[in-house]
Amino acid sequence: MNRDFLNDIGAIIRDSIKDRIRQNKVTPPTNKNGGRTLIESAILINSINSSVEDNNIIVGTNVQYARIHHEGGTIRPVKAKYLAIPLTAEAKVKRPRHFDNAFIKEGIIYRTIFPKGDEATIEALYALKKEVKIPARPYMYIDSNTRNTIENKLKDWILEQLH
Question: Are residues 88 and 67 in the same domain?
Fold first, then answer.
């Protein structure tokens, strides 16, 4: 089969998967306020690619967490007692031990902030969990519209080859 044709089919599949994620058609939806399912940093969606090896079209991603989002599963800590789930933007880019004036109360890591001249405030940084269940959110599949597009492209290619 023609390599350019196979690359075109791979691009159609890749783009339909990315469109499904961009258009928030992945279910179940996220429970984050105003969040879009599978898009937080765009690392996953930007990693989805296609290639051709021999006569095989390969569509996938090399992102480590892609599989658990697709299939679902339970995440448990490996080297600690608890998973630290970030509750703030700052907590997403730091580890709990990097915060000064931090303390744990009722499964939450807090920090005390001492602004100059004002009263101290307390901010929740992380929720501590023994495990987290990730629901299956299948996104790597060929839907009926994409299948029809591929079938039409294949028919056109076959007709071209016959003439």
Answer: no
Sign of the dihedral defined by the CA atoms of residues 94, 26, 141, 58, in that order:
negative
Domain count, the chain: 2
Q: Which residue has the tokens 């990315």?
A: 18
* In a shared domain, residues 70 and 1: yes
Residues 6 and 47 in one domain: yes
What residues does 49 pair with on adjacent strands?
A: 60
The number of beta carbons lying within 10 Å of the beta carbon of residue 53 is 8
The token pair that represents 11 in the structure block: 């691009």
CA distance 111 to 103: 6
Q: Could you tell me which residues come within 8 angstroms of residue 133 by beta carbon, excluding any fewer than 6 positions away?
A: 72, 73, 74, 75
CA nearest to 151, candidates 24, 30, 9, 17: 9
What are the tens digits of pLDDT across the range 42-93? 899 999 999 999 999 999 999 999 999 999 999 999 999 999 999 999 999 9
Pick the range with the lowest mean pLDDT from 20-24, 30-34, 85-89. 30-34
Nearest to 123 by CA among 83, 86, 93, 84: 86
Domain containing residue 40: 1-76+132-163
